């Protein structure tokens, strides 16, 4: 298992038209009524295709039409290349005109989440955070509280996706805690996970990007935050 590659894409980077989407993706898009949901769907697919192209050693602009991301029966994203399923794990998230896609070779657990840093109400803390998580938020300096509560929620989301449950799993059953220690050279910090089933094996990472919190949960080591590839992509045999 290799470390996941994470790629961010902004709404301003969306290409015109929809011919770069696969048939299944276009069918899903046609069923989305609201412009914001359509934008977010397209943005997530663009980020995913770019990340998949990087993992495959392809030029994202030339190859994006050959990759397709379809929902599996569980609802989790599943990647295809030239109609063949790929042996990779994919996780997607979007927030306020940005999308994040994480791709990892193999079938290990993987989740990512992207959230804009903002304050939440006391009712939100009471409903979704465990007592130790609320304490982490409330004991921090006033100026840090929006970051801290956003981190708690984003980390929970990443873990629930890694477990293949999403919001079907009660957020209160997932507990996260930022780990002490220095920031890595690439800007990542760690968080620990306590949750049902296999969560004990999950590793959590987080960082800020602009006004956003980006979290990744999985069974592998520190993610790689990457740009676009410039290599050619040969057709699959």
Describe this structure in words.
With 237 residues, the chain is of the alpha+beta class. Helix content is 28%, strand content 28%. The strands form 3 sheets. It has a 5-stranded antiparallel sheet with strand order 7-11-10-9-8. Strands 5-6-1-12 form a 4-stranded mixed sheet, with helices on one face. Strands 2-3-4 form a 3-stranded antiparallel sheet. A hairpin with a 2-residue loop joins strand 5 and strand 6. Helix 5 runs antiparallel to helix 6 (145-162). It starts with a strand and ends in a 12-residue tail after the last strand. The model is unreliable at 228-232 (pLDDT under 50).
The main β sheet shows up as:
5 strands, antiparallel
Number of helices: 6
User: Reading side by side through the largest sheet, how are the strands ordered?
Assistant: 7-11-10-9-8
Secondary-structure arrangement, i.e. CATH architecture of the largest domain: Alpha-Beta Complex
Total count of strands? 12
Number of domains: 2
Span between N and C termini?
Answer: 23 Å
Q: Give the quaternary arrangement of the chains.
A: single chain
Question: Uncertain spans, ≥5 residues at pLDDT below 50?
Answer: 228-232
What is the CATH domain class of the largest domain? Alpha Beta
Query: What percent of the residues sit in helical stretches (DSSP H or I)?
Result: 25-40%
What integer value in Å does the Rg equal?
Answer: 18 Å
CATH topology of the largest domain: Ribosomal Protein L22, Chain A
**Overall outline:** globular
Give the structural class.
Answer: alpha+beta
Q: What is the string of helix and strand elements?
A: EHHHEEEEEEHHHEEEEE
CATH superfamily of the largest domain: 4'-phosphopantetheinyl transferase domain
């Amino acid at each position: 298992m290799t470390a996941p590659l994470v790629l961010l894409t902004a709404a301003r980077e969306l290409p015109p038209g929809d011919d770069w989407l696969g048939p299944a993706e276009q069918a899903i898009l046609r069923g989305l009524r609201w412009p914001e949901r359509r934008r977010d769907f397209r943005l997530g697919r663009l980020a995913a295709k770019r990340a998949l192209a990087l993992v495959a050693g392809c030029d994202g602009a030339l190859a994006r039409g050959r990759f397709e991301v379809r929902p599996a029966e569980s609802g989790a994203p599943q990647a295809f290349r030239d109609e063949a399923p790929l042996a990779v794990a994919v996780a997607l998230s979007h927030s306020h005109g940005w999308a994040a896609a994480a791709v990892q070779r193999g079938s290990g657990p993987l989740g990512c989440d992207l959230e804009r840093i903002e304050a939440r109400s006391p009712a939100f803390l009471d409903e979704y955070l465990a007592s130790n998580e609320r304490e982490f938020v409330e004991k921090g300096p006033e100026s840090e509280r929006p970051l801290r509560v956003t981190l708690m929620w984003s980390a929970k989301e990443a873990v629930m996706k890694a477990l293949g449950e999403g919001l079907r799993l009660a957020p209160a059953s997932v507990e996260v805690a930022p780990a002490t220690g220095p920031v890595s050279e690439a800007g990542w910090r760690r968080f620990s996970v306590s949750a049902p089933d296999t969560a004990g094996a999950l590793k959590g990472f987080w960082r800020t990007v602009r006004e956003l919190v980006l979290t990744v949960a999985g069974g592998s080591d520190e993610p790689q935050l990457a740009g676009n590839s410039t290599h050619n992509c040969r057709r699959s045999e």
